[in-house]
Design brief:
29 helices, 14% strand, six-stranded mixed β-sheet, disordered N terminus, 931 residues, alpha/beta, single chain, six-stranded parallel β-sheet
């Protein structure tokens, strides 16, 4: 058996290693073709202006340059002299995704916005030939149009020998090249006042428009010696017009572009159609070079001005030869790229076949090994499955048996749950009835009225919880039967509303019924719907502040009556709204806690009526519950409808259960004018007002009491009052009791204050967690007041002992202070160090210590008073006298020197306070030491 196991393990290891080796060989083969030495970029190029030949020349230059940069793609679009079309083309390029935009704008102003938008999206923009009206672009490439016009003007001035008449044929009105070329041309002619400009015409860069404009103004051409056209296209058309007018031979024509190829400026100058042409480089090659520098994050210039020159009969042949050579080189490059692409295809095809063969062989070996291994494992698995099937059958039988037992146990628990809830009513009744008798007794009511009312209020609260539990069980077991009758719902709600009037008036809450449209008679169960209305009104009163409002609005649609209960209370968060109707749900952030059954039960009771209940709320803006009940009785079965009967007998019990908790005992105003000032103070943080009042009443005879109903307010009170002890509930609104404890114990201002946590969380884990939060005592509810009082007295007594210990340590020289609280120890060390360091400074004050430690003067005073039971001034004076005593014992300084060394300004004052402290003057003390 051992040999079999070793063989299988060895076989598995070999198969695993074979797979690793094979894929180690295959993956480099598969991935080698995917390696790219250069990154891939996509460049968008939008071209609009210039003649067809000029645009073609620019595009050819770009393609020539890109042919040397594999992996970069060019997306080209020609707008054909239309600004709107060019804008749409750029937008489409951006949507398709480009890394960089090259644009030759048709007009400066219309194209400015799209160029700015592209630039602001983080896409680099290179502007060619003409700029936009904004500096928001990455780089500009183009000839200086002003210089082109100036060179043309200077050439004509030299050719005409400083005198003559000229005509200017300009490009598109408003375009920056036309404006700049005209300005340069005119500036050049200003130096030659004998040269007159007979006319200026706009040819819009087009030959047809140029012919029309010149023929209209042919009279102005008769005495012309030279014509300057802003491009070669318009210059060629100008020459045709002159031929038609028989003015051809004596008039010089100068154009701009000097492009190669058929119809280009070079050929036109060569065949003497044009006298000269100013070279206007397209910038295609330069634009691609700058684009690659931008994409590769290399340095580049924003403004790239291309050089220009005049091409005439003296140099035209040389320019043609250079261009022919460039064209030949481009053809060679394209031919070589075609050969490389063919070779790459052959290589990929061969590599694919090789990879396929290798992978097939490897997979055959691997699958063969796996098949052999699977055969061995299959036998083992079949045996294992037989054993597992038998085991599963046995487990299934056991599960069925356990399920039956669990179901029986659950039913027994639920029955016990129902019965014990029912049994609670008997002792509650026996408590409630004698309690009401005691409340009627004026003598007993005078001496213990508040305590009896507190008991009465919480008995009714228990009774309400028991009723909710029993109703919940009835709904679960489908035993809650509907007994609906036809009733006037307005009178029904008015009667309930009157029950809450007293509680609302005491808190100045506007409680009213608003009837938008009377629904008439509505079918509902009086003893069920009243539970829902009572619960909603009780919640509204609970969560609405004093001077607030609660409106009940009745309205109807064609077949439904709506009852809205609206308040302007604290409202709910989105998380609370999501779970508000869940069973047993209790919000962690709300200002009051209940059983979590009320709203869930209300929803079930409304569903019994075939209605619905919904809620709308916003935090700190209020809440609205809407009940929707169907009109008529067709939605009810015959068993759910009963004859009209008096059901108001039960309403009194419901009123007492739901309204008693809103009755607040009158607050007794105490005359504090003759009240004894307490030595110690306690801060009590509790959101249950009754418990807060109870604890305040119990402790205020002995201690100064501060109170807070939220953790946030409690934290602020602790920082402001610095009490001697804090009692807080764990679950309070805002900051929880545990978090509050951690913050106070971690703060140098309050770390010394003992804290007692009160909580209903009584498990061992929760108690341990409470102590770990740095609390001094953790007491679970319900608690014995004497036990709480004993803990309070013990903690305060221990704090007094610590104070005495620290106070005595002020004058001791060799005793080392011991303290368990690390923060307090650090505080005292820092405090003592600051004082010791400044003993020689007679101007040293409490304000200096406050600034050095980083707390206010008041908080520093309270902290030192709590830890050392002395004032800061007394502490500093004692340290100075102690230091002086040391100097008198161990050093040879004079009395005056020692006086100033310990920071006392007057030797006389020093002698007085030293004698008060030690019973003799410094001089007498020094003589005693020498004896």
């Amino acid at each position: 058996m051992s040999n079999s196991v070793d063989f299988k393990s060895l076989f598995k290891y070999q198969i695993t290693m074979l797979i690793v080796v094979v894929f180690g060989l295959i993956l480099p083969l598969i991935g080698c073709s995917d390696k790219k030495e250069t990154p891939e970029y996509k460049i968008g190029f939008s071209q609009c202006v210039g003649s067809d030949l000029w645009r073609k020349t620019m595009l050819d230059e770009m393609k020539t340059e890109l042919s040397l940069r594999p992996g970069t793609k060019l997306s080209y679009a020609d707008a054909n002299n239309s600004s709107s079309k060019q804008i749409d083309q750029v937008k489409q390029m951006i949507e398709e995704g480009i890394d960089l935009l090259i644009i030759s704008p048709n007009e400066a102003l219309p194209l400015t916005k799209i160029v700015e938008e592209t630039y602001n999206k983080g896409i680099p923009v290179i502007v060619i030939d003409r700029k936009t009206s904004s500096p928001l672009y990455t780089a500009y490439v183009g000839a200086e149009n002003y210089q082109v016009g100036k060179i043309a003007g200077e050439y004509l001035a030299n050719s005409l020998k400083g005198s003559g008449n000229v005509v200017e044929v300009m490009g598109l009105p408003g375009s920056s090249p036309a404006i700049e070329r005209d300005r340069g041309f005119m500036d050049a002619l200003k130096k030659h006042p004998q040269i007159k400009v007979n006319g200026q015409f706009y040819g819009d860069w087009l030959g047809e428009n140029t012919e029309v404009q010149l023929l209209k103004n042919k009279d102005k051409l008769k005495n012309v010696d030279a014509i300057f056209a802003h491009n070669d296209v318009m210059a060629t058309s100008t020459r045709r017009v002159l031929q038609k007018l028989n003015l051809n031979k004596r008039i010089q024509v100068v154009g701009v572009d000097a492009l190669p190829g058929n119809g280009g400026g070079l050929n036109l100058v060569s065949n003497k159609t044009l006298t000269a042409s100013v070279l206007y480089p397209t910038g295609g090659k330069e634009a691609i070079n700058i684009a690659m520098r931008i994409l590769n994050r290399e340095s580049f210039s924003k403004e790239n001005i291309l050089q220009t020159v005049v091409i005439d009969s003296s140099n035209v042949q040389l320019m043609k030869l250079q261009w022919a050579r460039i064209s030949s080189q481009q053809n060679d490059i394209e031919r070589q790229q075609t050969l490389l692409a063919d070779q790459f295809k052959v290589y990929n095809s061969q590599r694919l076949v090789l990879n396929f063969i290798v992978i097939t062989l490897v997979l055959a070996v691997v699958f063969g090994g796996l098949a052999f291994h699977a055969l061995l494992e299959n036998r083992k698995i079949n045996k294992s499955l037989e054993l597992k099937n038998a085991e599963i059958l046995n487990q299934r039988n056991q599960l069925i048996e356990m399920s039956e037992k669990a179901q029986a146990a659950t039913e027994a628990k639920l029955n016990f749950f129902t019965n014990i809830s029912h049994e609670f009513r008997t002792p509650l009744t026996l408590i409630l009835s004698p309690l009401e008798d005691l409340l009627k007794n004026e003598r007993i009511k005078t001496s213990a009225g508040n305590n009896l009312k507190l008991i009465n209020k919480n008995v009714y609260r228990l009774l309400r919880l028991v009723n909710q539990l029993m109703d919940y069980r009835k709904i679960e077991h489908k035993k809650f039967k509907l007994h609906a009758t036809a009733n006037n719902i307005i009178d029904f709600i008015k009667e309930i509303l009157d029950s809450f009037k007293h509680s609302a008036e005491k808190r100045n809450i506007d409680l009213r019924l608003v009837i938008k449209e009377s629904p008439g008679v509505v079918w509902f169960d009086v003893n069920i719907l009243d539970k829902v209305i009572f619960n909603l009104l009780s919640n509204a009163l609970k969560f609405t502040s004093d001077n607030g409002r609660i409106y009940i609005t009745i309205s109807k649609t064609e077949d439904t009556v709506h009852i809205d209960v609206e308040d302007n209370g604290v409202g709910m968060t989105d998380i609370e709204l999501k779970h508000i109707f869940d069973q047993f749900y209790q919000s962690d952030v709300n200002y009051s806690r209940g059983s979590g059954l009320g709203l869930s039960l209300s929803k079930e009771l409304i569903l019994l009526h075939k209605g619905d209940i919904s809620v709308n709320s916003q935090k700190w803006q209020g809440t609205t519950f809407r009940i929707a009940l169907p009109l008529g009785d067709t939605h009810l079965t015959a068993e759910e409808k009963v004859a009209q009967e008096q059901q108001s007998a039960k309403l009194y019990d419901q009123i007492k259960i739901y309204t008693t908790e809103h009755d607040h005992a009158a607050i007794k105003e105490k005359d504090r004018s003759f009240e004894h000032i307490k030595d110690q103070s306690i801060l009590i943080i509790e959101d249950n007002q009754d418990l807060l009042d109870y604890l305040t009443d119990k402790f205020e005879g002995t201690y100064e009491i501060f109170t807070a109903s939220t953790g946030t307010n409690g934290l602020a009170e602790a920082y402001e009052k610095i009490p001697d002890l804090i009692i807080t509930d764990v679950v309070v609104p805002g900051i929880s009791g545990k978090n509050l404890t951690q913050q106070l114990k971690s703060d140098i201002r309050t770390s010394h204050i003992p804290i007692i946590l009160l909580t209903a969380q009584g498990s061992i884990e929760q108690q341990v967690n409470g102590i770990q939060s740095m609390a001094d005592v953790y007491i679970t509810k319900p608690f014995n007041f004497e036990y709480l009082q004993a803990n309070v007295e013990n903690l305060i007594k221990n704090r007094v002992i610590l104070k005495e210990h620290y106070t005595s340590d002020i004058s001791s020289s060799g005793v080392k202070r011991t303290i368990t609280n690390v923060i307090d120890k650090k505080f005292l060390n820092d405090f003592a160090g600051i004082v010791e360091h400044n003993l020689g400074n007679e101007h040293f004050s409490v304000d200096d210590i406050s600034k050095a430690i980083g707390i206010s003067r008041v908080q520093l005073y309270r902290k030192i008073k709590a830890l050392l039971n002395c004032s800061i001034t007394d502490y500093i004076l004692n340290r100075r006298l102690k230091k002086a005593k040391y100097y008198l014992n161990n050093e040879e300084y004079s009395i005056s020197e020692i006086t100033y060394m310990v920071g006392i300004s007057s030797p006389t004052y020093f002698s007085t306070i030293f004698k008060n402290k030690y019973g003799m003057t410094p001089t007498e003390y020094k003589k005693t030491r020498l004896q």
